[in-house]
Amino acid sequence: MVYTAADWPIAAALLPFPSLDPSGQSVQDANSSVWRSVLQEVADAGFHNADLTDTWLRVGDLSRDRLDELAGAAASVGVGLPAGSAIRRSIIDAKHAESNLAYTHRTIDAAAHLGCEVVSIGLHQALTPEQQAQLWFWTVAGHQDPVDDRECWALAVRRFRELGKHAAEVGLLLSLELYEDTYLGTSESAVQLVEDIGLPNVGLNPDIGNLVRLHRPVESWREIAEKTLPYANYWHVKNYTRDEDRAAGYYVAMPAPMESGIINYREAFRIALAAGFQGVICVEHYGGDGLSVCATNERYLRSRVLPRTPDYELGTSKVSQGRQTPRRDSLAPA
């Protein structure tokens, strides 16, 4: 049995929601009714699932009792919690690697407690003050992993393998998110990293949007898709308009709904299905009413992109897929 447009698990990213409420109180310490109100907005936008993005709420820093409160809040509004994303917690960060590693282990345990099936992590680090001052942070270069540093690469492999083994022990997939100027910053490097890690439950989150938005020459979206989607076990999807004049050194990109940007997701999903992809999808968007754009993106996927019937030809994935894990109870009905 394979997914169709009607039942494919699509989660809303919680990126549009801040970590502070209007009164300035931390969402982390808020009453669970505050969490419920956010998840109610997600449900009202038409979603049955959400990605626990830690820019909103750090589940790895919640007690078991608070995790149960979160699960109860989600269940009360009919929102499943199939995935979590830990953002900017690089496990090779020169200053914070050890604390980030410990935090990621806690996040894996919290995700398992909540009944998730996949946790997405990466090597991107905190935004620099220069990036924070921009309208769009990706227009200014941030942290860069050291090039041709075999020891640093080996450290990343060891620590991702450690996290992957932990995830496997608690029944989770681990997904590594593409991000510029890191060891997950090109399709070739990302694939090599996953192959070096060598665990069946560790795959890629081929967030192509993170790369095509850069204000400089980039890989073609199709090349990224063709190389990384065979290794995908989770997928953040978003899109950008893009214009460039290489002779003049002019590059610009801005967020766009999925059907309007430079990435042709109709074609990208053909590539994904041919590669055997059957993982959870998370729709994202930066700027404006991000949740509404995410809802538009979900409708686009279900009405125009994802297969309507289960009789399509599915390829063979190079990593474990969510469909193969015993975590389907974390999904609300589509």
Number of helices: 10
Largest sheet: 8 strands, parallel
Morphology: globular
Radius of gyration: 19 Å
The CATH superfamily is identified as Divalent-metal-dependent TIM barrel enzymes
| Straight-line N-to-C gap | 16 Å
- Please give the share of residues in helix: 25-40%
Query: Numbering strands along the chain, what is their spatial order in the largest sheet?
Result: 6-5-4-3-2-1-10-7
Q: How are the SSEs ordered, and which strands pair?
A:
Elements: E1 10-13, H1 32-44, E2 49-53, H2 64-76, E3 80-85, H3 97-114, E4 118-121, H4 129-132, H5 150-169, E5 173-177, H6 187-197, E6 202-205, H7 209-212, H8 221-228, E7 234-237, E8 239-245, E9 250-256, H9 265-274, E10 280-283, H10 290-305
Parallel strand pairs: 1-2, 1-10, 2-3, 3-4, 4-5, 5-6, 7-10
Antiparallel strand pairs: 8-9
Helix pairs in contact: 1-2, 3-5, 5-6, 6-8
Question: How is this structure best described in words?
Answer:
This protein is of the alpha/beta class. It has a single domain (10-328), classed as Divalent-metal-dependent TIM barrel enzymes (TIM Barrel, Alpha-Beta Barrel), CATH 3.20.20. It has 10 helices and 10 strands. Strands 6-5-4-3-2-1-10-7 form an 8-stranded parallel β-sheet. The chain has a two-stranded antiparallel sheet with strand order 8-9. Helix 5 packs across helix 6 and helix 6 runs parallel beside helix 8 (221-228). It starts with 9 loop residues before the first strand and ends in a 29-residue tail after the last helix.
